[in-house]
Amino acid sequence: MTTSGSAPQAGPNTAEALLTVQGLKTWFHTDDGILKAVDGVDFSVPACSTLGLIGESGCGKSVTARSILGIVPRPGRIEAGTITFQSQEQGSVELTAMDPTGREIRSIRGREITMIFQEPMSSLSPVHSIGNQLSETILLHMSVDRREAMERSHELLDRVGIPDPGQRLQEFPHHLSGGMRQRVMIAMALSCRPSLLIADEPTTALDVTVQAQILELIRELQAEHQMAVLFITHDLGVIAETCDHVAVMYLGRIVEAGPVREIFHNPRHPYTIRLMESIPRLGEERSRLNAIAGTVPIPLDPPAICSFLDRCPDQMEGVCDQAMPALVQLHPHHSVRCFLHSQEVEGP
Amino acid sequence: MTDERAPTPAPLLQIESLHKYFPVQKGLLRRVVGQVRAVDGVDLELASGETLGLVGESGSGKTTLGRCVVRAQQPTSGAIRLDIEGRDPIDLAVASQSELRTYRQHMSMIFQDPFLSLDPRWTVLDIVSEPLRKLQIVKAGEAEDRVRALIEVVGLEAQHLHRYPHAFSGGQRQRIGIARALATNPKLIVADEPVSALDVSIQAQILNTLKDLQQEFSLTYLFIAHDLSVVEHISDRVAVMYCGRVVESGPTRRLFHQPLHPYTEALLSAVPQPDPDRRSDRIILPGEVANPANPPAGCHFHPRCSYARDICRSEDPPYVNWEEDHGAACHFSTEIELQGV
Ligand SMILES: Nc1ncnc2c1ncn2[C@@H]1O[C@H](COP(=O)(O)OP(=O)(O)OP(=O)(O)O)[C@@H](O)[C@H]1O
Ligand SMILES: Nc1ncnc2c1ncn2[C@@H]1O[C@H](COP(=O)(O)OP(=O)(O)OP(=O)(O)O)[C@@H](O)[C@H]1O
Ligand code: SF4
Ligand code: SF4
Ligand SMILES: [Mg+2]
Ligand SMILES: [Mg+2]
Fold first, then answer.
1. pTM assigned to the model
2. Which of A290, B6, B150, B171 could share a disulfide with A277, CB 3.0–4.6 Å?
3. What ipTM goes with this model?
């Protein structure tokens, strides 16, 4: 396994990254036109680090995650791009080239790369006991027998902080609280010791005190398992709390990426700057918030101009409405997609 | 308790010893086997024109309290006195439907998603004018004019009037919900998680709108939310609920800076801060949210409280006002040093 000690990058490609996404386009062919949910996304996740993917509802975070796992729902399709993953068993592999239902991807999905969702019930079966579901996952991916799988399930529940694991193994998901279900999901996701965990809004539905427990748990387990995490959320607080690097998404593209301190203390893209200003912060007195005007448009057949244009207070006439800016590295570790910072135009 | 501070006007709303229990039923015969004490003895006051923020974990009784206030739900016991200038005070908790009728126009509610409970075949005009029609406040012909005006007040355009809910974004829908809540020109608005489902950039727009409207129409808000930064931003005073009770309340600044209840301290500490340099040693509460159908004995918070001592396991701490308007229900409020923000 590659354990990178050097400063990892959230921007475009790094040779040693565990996961590298380049030029990813995932579109939905709907009756109303082509919905470009993900429209040219680049980022990389170094081994053992945490990349936060942040953005507002509908900007393409979940579709990006699903593209990585090869589980894009119809009528969606990966149109372009590469997703390179350093598999422990198969070496460097290109995930988009694999048959989404084939054996190759299935030996990676659910094993080397696993995912937890906002609503755990969507991936837990209501009719099977927790113990059955956990041990089935283990049996599917590891060479152990039924008894060993059950023992490992017991250990896992204990590790994710579920009291009385022996009893819980026999219970069904609906017997558990939201926080407990999320713990079970995490146990399941970690059962095969993945090298990459994709966490899609794992704490959004939870109370703040329970959220703090789950974030702490993910952090501990990450260190213990030497695992990388792609953390998807719309909560700037959660990002600041958990991530080493941040990629800010807007309407299907990354508009800014860099180390977490750089993004929070020195944001450069007009959208990131306004986003930081629009949130109320504890202990801070302000009579009004600086809201961003307008709403996120739906990316149906979008024109090739800056997608933040109609909400951007810094827009330049004759420039921003003419082309799509490229994602450009300002510093080795900080990239921005905006004509204020570079004239470079995105290629076709 | 009677109010002896003579010069201050009577509060707009005075909630006393409010209880709302739900039966827990089991089996085919739906036998009642217990009670969910959703609201379990709450005292609160709202002065005219102020915003009281109500926070607390899921299931702590916030929505139930809000619904009792607008009498969408009949309380089990207690008093809810509404004192509107120029009208006789009324106890909403015991008022009959016909008595309530003439008071309904003074109160309304904003929901997390106002369209979940509405017919998707209704237009914006139908939705916003419904309270007017139901309470027969304006004549049929005038309703549309009023709705047109309201729609503009909340920042939408009159051309939206004949559209259906599905054609709107989350933020726009919330604006329609606010317009509906304003329709009858109310004094008191219970806002139940009005920005929780919205994106951060839209959340800021709606919070600003709510503040502007409060100024313009001297509205009083009971603002329910689980996001403490939002509550701090919008509220003059805050009440923290835990397991059906108010465990602390006080002026926003004071409560956030110097909490008097260990649960408030933990809640404040758990909020993820949007500042990577402040990844601090947070207090991670053990255990789960208390179950109001089977609350722990003594102080309901004791199984999760790091300050708990023997007395906490057996004796329920009374709510005590320590400084004029800032109080808590904890045996050791004055002894322990709690950390605020
Ligand atoms: N099955 C689908 N069919 C058509 N469009 C879809 C489908 N799934 C997603 N989309 C569209 O793709 C875009 C991106 O959706 P996605 O779920 O990735 O957003 P997100 O960033 O995860 O948002 P949220 O924060 O709300 O989860 C949206 O415009 C969405 O409407
Ligand atoms: N109609 C009902 N019948 C039975 N129990 C109910 C009913 N309404 C609420 N409860 C229970 O009362 C308690 C308080 O619920 P309430 O919805 O008021 O909590 P809340 O603080 O608003 O929570 P949330 O933050 O999740 O909205 C919960 O245990 C809930 O299950
Ligand atoms: S490219 Fe122009 S419109 Fe787009 S974010 Fe930059 S300044 Fe604003
Ligand atoms: S009364 Fe005891 S258990 Fe309850 S909050 Fe105070 S110290 Fe904690
Ligand atoms: Mg999503
Ligand atoms: Mg509620």
1. 0.90
2. A290
3. 0.85
